[in-house]
Every structure is written in structure tokens, then in C-alpha cells.
Amino acid sequence: MWMHEPRGYDCPFCAFLREQPNTYTNQDFVVYQDALSTAYVAPKWWPHTAGHVIVIPRIHTENIYTITDDQLAATYVTAKKIAIGMRTVYGCDGISMRQHNEPAGNQDVWHFHVHVFPRYTDDNLYGNHAKSYIAPSDERMKFADTLRAYFTENGV
Ligand SMILES: [Zn+2]
Q1: Quick one: pLDDT band at residue 1, thresholds 50, 70, 90?
Q2: What are the φ/ψ torsions at residue 16 (nearest 5 degrees)?
Q3: Whether the predicted pLDDT of 25 surpasses 90
Q4: Which among 117, 112, 63 has a CA at the least distance from the CA of 90?
Q5: Ligand 1 centroid to 111 CA: how many Å?
Q6: How confident is the model at residue 22 (pLDDT cuts 50, 70, 90)?
Q7: How does pLDDT run across 51-78, given as a tens digit for each residue?
Q8: 13 CA distance to ligand 1 centroid (A)?
Q9: What is the CA(33)–ligand 1 centre distance, in A?
């Protein structure tokens, strides 16, 4: 019910989890992982909110209606770790999390995912929705290294 994944869908997040690099990303950008969830610095950024992270369950599931409670809990516990890490080491003023379901809800990858955004006063994240861009790998790696160092130093 309420699913939009086409038959034979070649899921980009599952390919990523199988360590198949794609045009935009690879495992080098993973910042945190546990048995049920993975978090990585995403390639798509918006102005003034560099370092956007995506958290995904490690087993394919399409959306909020299909995800198991265990997967959901693990994904959001990881998102919380990312939020605290970002707030500590990015120098941001706040955090936003977004999770989309179905085309009307702006979902565009048919694998449940949570966006974690660093927020800055007057960053106009939502007003800049149409201004996304693919962040350079070296810039993304700086944010990934910063978060990983924080997790390592804090035993997360
Ligand atoms: Zn998938």
C-alpha cells in the first residue's frame, strides 16, 4: 500500500550499501554505521548548509509506512548522533531533519532516508530549495573527517 517503487527498481542506496560506487558517492563518505543504519555525508547540498548527512536503514524498505519499528528506531537514533555531532563540531546554530514519503511528499529515492541538515541563522534552507548542487568531493570529505573524528574522540 502507498508504494511507488517500480518493479525491478535498481535502488541507489542499496547499491551504495553493497559498496558499489556511483557517480556521486562512495563508502569513503560514511561517517557512522551500526547493524541497522548507515550515515554518510550526502553529495547534494543547498546554499549555506554545507555538510548535509543522509541516514538510511541498511535493509531496503521504501517509506515510513513499510519500515519496521526496529529499523525506524535505529535510523533515528543514528540521526540523533549525527545531529549532536554536527551541533558540536560544525559550528552551526541548529539542526533540521527531514524525511519524505511518496511523490507528493517530495520523495525521490524509494528507500527510506532521513536528511540531517546543519542550520545557521537566516540560512534560508527552504527558500533555496531549487538551488541544490553537487558538492565537491574534497569539501564533503572535510565534513566527513570532522564528524568521524568527533565520533572517535567521544566513543560514539
Ligand atoms: Zn534500497
Answers
A1: confident
A2: -60, -45
A3: no
A4: 117
A5: 5
A6: confident
A7: 999 999 999 999 999 999 999 999 999 9
A8: 5
A9: 16
Tell how far the Cα of 7 is from the centroid of ligand 1, in angstroms. Answer: 13
All residues with CB under 5 Å from ion ligand 1: 11, 13-14, 60, 111
Beta strands in the chain (DSSP E): 30-33, 37-41, 44-45, 53-57, 94-98, 114-119, 133-134
How many angstroms is it from 61 CA to the middle of ligand 1? Answer: 6
C-alpha 94/C-alpha 6 separation (Å) is 36
Runs of H (alpha helix) within the chain: 12-17, 69-89, 137-153
How far apart (Å, rounded) are the C-alpha atoms in residues 101 and 115? 12
Within 8 A by CB and 6+ apart from 128, the residues are 46, 47, 48
Q: Give the integer Cα–Cα distance in Å for 1 and 65.
A: 8
